[in-house]
Amino acid sequence: MRRVLELTFKTSTEKTFTLQIQNPKADLTKDIVEQAMNKIMKLNLFDLSKGELVSIHSAQYIERSTRPLIK
């Protein structure tokens, strides 16, 4: 199964920006993810046309599995 951590932020122009992290740890807590998202916002790493990251919108794991029907 493939797992992605999807972090979504609100921007200064009231839009959202989503960052997907491949193969995250499976046991992340809300506090750890919030701390990481706050650090990402403070570092101001992204030059976005949607504005600067200003707050946390959401975070979620996305898990995908594939079941081949024909090989």
TrEMBL record:
Pfam families: DUF2922 (PF11148)
InterPro entries for the chain: DUF2922 (IPR021321)
The protein's name: DUF2922 domain-containing protein
Originating organism: Mammaliicoccus vitulinus
